[in-house]
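Project standup — Tuesday

K.O.: blocked on the structure for the chain from last sprint. Re-posting the sequence here as requested.
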Amino acid sequence: MKLSYARGLSVLAMSSLLVGCQGESTSEEINIAEESSVSSTSKGSSSEAQKQTSESHTHEHDDHEHDHDHAKDEEFQKIYEGYFEDSQVKDRSLSDWQGDWQSVYPYLQDGTLDEVFAYKEKHNGDKTAQQYKEYYNEGYETDVDRIQIEKDTVTFFKKGEELSGQYIYDGYEILTYDAGNRGVRYIFKLAEEAEGLPQYIQFSDHSIDPTEASHYHLYWGDDRGALLKEVTNWPTYYPAEMDGHEIAHEMMSH
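H.V.: unblocked you, prediction finished:
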């Protein structure tokens, strides 16, 4: 997608124990020597029991933490794939996308992401690597190769030119896709009209509540409603400090 410097800017879009042993008691009839011996054994048993109980508690605690983490990972994956309840969606601020971001489109063009498409062909099997590349070429296409976000200011970089504007939160919209899964667009509106800047920007990063983004898809233009219908072009941005191979490996991990 391209960033136009005229009004009427068109859209630019879309793309995680208890075993206790008690010490033995001694009988009153046993002699002192035996009592001493039993007492010593009793203390040893008590100490060992405490150790076993402690270890058992630790094991149960570790199991509980593992189960809790596993449940969180499963919930995160479901949300990432677009399956969630409306009640789970929360407002977010522009601070979730703070930083210096680079477009992944140049890495598609120079072949760096070819390993991603080969991986998808092998593991998904619904498209060839070339078909994946064509699909993502349409999705990633943009002439805005860098975006900086600092506080409420968003700066677009296009062919050496910079355009900056202040954006304020304008709510979110929940979208349902043809495949049955859903996504959330977080929308920000230009605070004061400025030549060449889009009136609206819409973030999609697979998260539905306040979370620091690791990457995102960005849509922008002057028509809020029209942007929500854009689902084929979704320029995608990763942290500027990552190289192409790091980005490719990150893509394959999802």
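K.O.: great, moving the ticket to review. Residues 4-46 have pLDDT under 50 and may be disordered. The radius of gyration is 29 Å.
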